[in-house]
Design goal:
The complex is a heterodimer of chains A (about 450) and B (about 270). With about 450 residues, chain A is mainly α. Helices cover about 70% and strands about 5% of the residues of chain A. Chain A folds into two domains: about 1-80, no CATH class; about 125-445, ABC transporter involved in vitamin B12 uptake, BtuC, CATH 1.10.3470. Chain B has a six-stranded mixed β-sheet, sandwiched between helices. A four-stranded antiparallel β-sheet of chain B has the order 2-1-4-5, with helices on one face. The chains are: A mainly alpha (about 450), B alpha/beta (about 270). The structure holds adenosine-5'-diphosphate (ADP) and magnesium ion.
């Protein structure tokens, strides 16, 4: 036993195995008072199929899963040590640190394969729509807001406004709003993607350019107001937006490129894949951005705006840029939501949704792309699960109580998020130690 | 005309009732090491902030000769524009990007004055790659120049005071300036670091051709470096001249030591 525990490989495998057995038990059939052990036996010996590939028993499935978990875990550690050695080499080659790979391809690969197979692994109508509407869209939204809040350090409480503008733009150019569409409408929603991204980006710049001069709390209040204004417009401009009745039916996108021909329908899974493609593009682009001079300039502004200006960085320009990039991501999410759910209602774009998205970012770790994605998936899966099989005594109104408790716990135990960004975590530690400059008087007489 | 890097004429800066700079006129020749001294609260840092666009004086004019030899007005310009035009500075209480490494700090300075290619950065296009390589090389060069190369990957907040000053100098130089403004660079450093710093500052001027404007309390350092001095007191220039002339100027001695005659033999410190 001693030697068993001491061998790291065996230990890791043992833990993977135990966790998977626990999952097997939890997802297995229930027992009954007559045959209390039926649940236990059934959890392991019930016939099962290996994702429809071949028939076997449950214990085989979960043993296989344990092996997979073990493999990923070991792979992760090996890669970690590779990274550690490159960092120690960095002392002799200073560039190594700044040139650290912004995208971890192996990790992205594994995640991508899992994401691609997910609709087959979880073959269930509810989860298919949750995967798209609750998880996919919100991961995308959180990724976009992370650029604004995490990278540039701007508190945006009206982020959902850009999401709404994206959705309404789609409805507009496909001719589904009371207001006449451009070029007599009836564009495919695919056309809406670039159009919405451009319109939302312009909206981001128009809102950002005058307001991003404000600091901290003022900016939060202005964006909050902007979010509310957009919702109120959507609700009350009956002749333009259709008011609270929402838009007319929005057509589904049609892909027709050379030999490729695909028509999206009400089914969520094709939209899931559409989201996935764009999510991967956004994730890679944002990773590269974070490690580019633009990402460094954002960090510089976040840490010390006066010092950043002293080396010629125009803070306003970079803030507006972050705002516009974040906004266009939300705009794209709006296009997908609008064409998937077939119509848009103002009630989907409330302050509450803005705050929800912000919670995803804070929970995952501001400024950490990987953290925000993982955090958003965890919260949205939990949320969907509560919707799907509410535990006894749970009511949907309780959700925010739990979410609030979760955030409080986070702030106590992991204040920089689930998987913090390295830079952000350092900043947090430093500001606790009294380093860094907020808005102190420029005379420098304060030590 | 353009052999004056700075030409400051009758600048007055007020904060409500407080007059930080009162009718200040001064000039700096290209390639000169110029020092500004004066007791605490005299307005030295305010002068620096006015020269770098951080403060906007209510009266007077400040002209600066940029890289192209064009004379431009500083007043009315934003700090980042002034920096891009060729005015670099360090801060009295050093201001680094403390969560970043030494290398990253300097690199931010090196890359800040090139155009921003958002799309290029998102796809890491060839222009972005070339830019990165160029900034990396420049950063390495400067870290070697100021003697921080072996601390390139240290988080900057863990550097000693002396190293922080050198980091700030490297970051400022990375922006390819015409003039470098140093606000009390020797504060908080030990005697050995002071000697190194003196050498470094002279090297910046001699090897890089960057003019130096220096605020410093340490008279040994000032006297060793400065070719000319201005003395500020209560927001006004009370004296100007060579180190020797300033050292024996009774007005200066009084400003520093009060009016006790028996101490006038000592040099101001
Ligand atoms: N931002 C500011 N707001 C109000 N007063 C200021 C400000 N900056 C400087 N001052 C005042 O200007 C005077 C000169 O300060 P300063 O330039 O820091 O002097 P020095 O650097 O010579 O010690 C002081 O009286 C100071 O209080
Ligand atoms: Mg000062």
């Amino acid at each position: 036993m001693q030697t068993f525990l001491r061998n790291p490989h065996l230990r890791r495998f043992g833990i993977s195995f135990l966790v998977m057995e626990l999952v097997a038990l939890m997802t297995g059939p229930p027992g009954s008072t007559q045959t209390p052990t039926a649940g236990f036996r059934g959890s392991f010996f019930e016939a099962s199929s290996f994702y429809g590939l071949f028939r076997t028993q449950r214990w085989v499935v979960f043993l296989a899963l344990a092996v997979v978990v073990f493999a990923i875990w070991s792979g992760w550690l090996t890669q970690g040590s590779v990274i550690r050695t490159t960092t120690s080499k960095a002392l002799t080659y200073p560039r190594a640190v700044t040139q650290r790979k912004p995208v971890r391809w192996s990790l992205l690969g594994v995640a991508l394969i899992v994401a691609l197979l997910l609709p087959r692994i979880v073959d269930d109508a509810f989860w298919h729509s949750a995967m798209t509407e609750q998880i996919g869209v919100f991961v995308l939204l959180a990724t976009g807001l992370n650029v604004v809040v995490g990278f540039a350090g701007l508190l945006d409480l009206g982020y959902v406004a850009f999401y709404a503008i994206g959705a309404y733009t789609t409805a507009w150019i496909t001719g589904s709003l009371p207001t006449p569409a451009p070029f007599h409408g009836h564009f495919d929603p695919f056309v809406a993607i670039p159009v919405a991204i451009v319109i939302v980006m312009v909206a981001g710049i128009l809102l950002g350019a005058p307001t991003l001069r404000l600091r901290g709390d003022y900016l939060a209040i202005v964006t909050l107001g902007f979010g509310e204004i957009v919702t109120i417009f959507a609700n009350n401009l009956y002749g333009i937006t259709g008011g609270s009745q929402g838009s007319g039916p929005i057509p589904h996108p049609v892909l027709h490129v050379g030999p490729l021909h695909y028509v999206w329908s009400l089914k969520p899974v094709p939209y899931y894949y559409l989201l996935l493609v764009f999510l991967v593009i956004f994730l890679i682009a944002f990773s590269l951005l974070e490690h580019s001079r633009i990402g460094r300039a954002w960090t510089a502004i976040r840490e010390d705006e006066v010092a950043a200006e002293s080396v010629g960085i125009n803070p306003l320009k970079y803030k507006v840029m972050a705002f516009a990039i974040g906004a266009s991501t939300a705009g794209f999410a709006g296009v997908v939501t609008a064409s998937q759910s077939n119509n848009v209602f103002p009630s989907s774009f409330t302050l509450q949704s803005s705050i929800n998205i912000l919670v995803l970012v804070i929970f995952g770790g501001m400024g950490s792309i990987f953290g925000v994605v993982v955090g958003a998936i965890i919260i949205q899966v939990a949320y969907s699960y509560l919707l799907h099989t509410p535990p006894q005594g749970y009511q949907s109104a309780d959700l925010y109580m739990y979410l609030g408790a979760l955030l409080v716990l986070m702030m106590i135990f992991r204040p920089s998020g689930l998987i913090p960004s390295r830079r952000r975590q350092r900043e947090m530690v430093l500001s606790k130690a009294g380093e860094g400059h907020m808005d102190e008087v420029l005379t420098g007489d304060t030590p | 005309m353009s052999d004056l890097i700075f030409n400051v004429d009758s600048v007055t800066l007020r904060f409500g009732g407080v007059v930080s700079l009162n009718d200040v006129s001064l000039h700096q020749k290209r390639g000169e090491i110029l020092a500004v001294i004066g007791p605490n609260g005299a307005g030295k840092t305010s002068l620096f902030n006015s020269l770098t666009g951080v403060y906007q004086p209510q009266e007077g004019s400040i002209f600066f000769t940029n890289r192209e030899g064009k004379v431009i007005s500083i007043i009315g310009k934003k700090a980042h524009r002034v920096a891009s035009a060729g005015v670099a500075r360090t801060f009295q209480a050093s201001r680094m990007f403390s969560a970043l490494t030494t290398f990253e700090n300097v690199k931010i300075g090196a890359e800040s004055h090139r155009g921003i290619g958002v799309i290029g950065a998102m796809v890491k296009g060839p222009r972005t790659r070339r830019g990165e390589r160029h900034s990396d090389e420049r950063t390495e060069e400067l870290l070697k120049f100021v003697g921080l190369y072996d601390k390139a990957n240290v988080i900057s907040s863990s550097l000693s005071y002396g190293d922080r000053r050198r980091l700030e100098i490297a970051r400022g130089l990375a922006t390819d300036p015409q003039v470098l403004l140093l606000d009390e660079p020797a504060a908080g450093t030990n005697p050995a670091e002071k000697i190194q710093l003196t050498e470094l500052i002279r090297k910046v001027r001699d090897e890089m051709g960057v003019s130096i404007l220096l605020i410093e309390h340490d008279m040994k350092l000032v006297m060793a470096l400065a070719e000319r001095l201005y003395v500020l007191n209560f927001g006004s220039v009370i004296a100007e001249g060579s180190p020797e002339a300033i050292r024996s100027n009774p007005v200066v001695i009084e400003a520093y030591l009060g009016s006790s005659d028996d101490e006038s033999e000592k040099s101001p410190s």
